[in-house]
Amino acid sequence: GQKTNNGMHSVWMMISLAAMCGHTVKQGGNLGVNSTDTASNPVTFENGRMFPQLGSGTTYPFLAVDSNKFVDLVVTGRDGRTAEQFYNDNKYIYGVELNQDDPKLEVDMVLGSYHITNSFNTCPNTNKAVNIFTQKDGSDYKIKHYVIYEQYMTPTAAYADVILPACSHHEKPFFANGEATFFQNKLIEPMYDTKSDVDIDIELAKKLNTRGIPVSYSRNGKTDEELCKEAWEAATVDGIEKPSFEEVKEIGKVQKPIDETTIPNPMPGLMGYLQYTTETGKIQFFSPFYYYRDKCDLENQEGSPRVEPRVKYVEPYEGYEKIMNNNNVGVKGIEYTMQFTTKHARNRAHTVYDNVSMIRDEFDYPKRAIMNPADASKRGIHDGDTVYIFNDWGCVKVGVGISPTINEGVISLPHGVWYRKGSETYGAWYDIDLGNSVENKVVGDKTYYKYIVNVDIGGCENGLTHDKDFGSPKDPLCGQVGDNHFNGNLCEVSKVHPDNL
Prior knowledge:
13 helices, Rossmann fold, 3-stranded parallel β-sheet, alpha+beta
């Protein structure tokens, strides 16, 4: 994925190249991640619902916002988009007309989370999120109500006002789709006091009704499996014979067979066929989105007209160029001489399984970071030492291993470790007033605010990531940011607390 500075550009180009080469309309084609080739999955559910609609009553409009800029949305009412963009997107895409003079949203309640359930771990700049969710008194910016459905006490759930215990995927039947349509049978009954999401919703509807808020939401006497069967019987299946619901329960997957006589990749036939007349002699990509959205110039990442497409190297916001050009002193006044990367760990699937003790026991878990022997020697660090990894955004305290397999100037902090608030504190700096800063200063043309955050003793990489956007990359149709900046930020490593350096 796009988990690096400016990584959005490579993803956009992959999508364009897939379309140019015909992958998107061929079975087995497309990008293979969060997408479908439109040919492998023959199933279409009625109204797109894999579970029948159970409720009736007042419905409210849907608005998509940038989850990576959720804290900014809470504080400013917008997610990084300009006032004009925010107004127009919501009016013309979602049919919601905000105040044109000052279009804003007020976040009154967070139900579930603002990205996926463990948002504190998966979204950039964990410390900003912790700050805004813990401002309970004396601030206009606080989250008024926070309710989450969860199976585990994740770092995000720990800050909820109410946790509704949800059962696992093994304790309920459901459909899922992608390259095929899948069916998960219910294997066991929900354990302890956990419930399925549907059961929780029904209980909440009952509570609302007792408070005089009329909500009609129930199964009408049907089980989850009977409702899944109802959805299946209303679905259409194209190109193959539709199996019965009982057959779907048995096979678990409905997918078109692969035609082995077709060539899924036409690219070899295109290579060398035409000489490209571009200035590089290779395929070049131009983004109308950038050009027409806000005329962003990638050279300075400011809104200004672009006259014509041209080849341009886009320097990362925090890349090694900053170190080479001696432009690596942060707002804290500290020179950052290293970069961190976040490889995928063998013992986790993103943030999942980090809390499984049996898996932890199979790994040298205390050594969560890895650095080059030369970098370690300069800092008096030895294999197995506990170190602080820090930058302007935050600080983590973890054990470190020494290995020549890591490049000099780089420290590897494996992806997905859960955030754990330690007792030590650290001074972090952000370019937004969250309402409880202890100091501020102007650097260049920006005002930065200092916040006292806790040192993370878990090793969550997003304690070191920024949540900045470049060139207004948000897609107005889905509101999502293009970059998750999980790799490449500048940092420094020390055996002593960085605020004591």
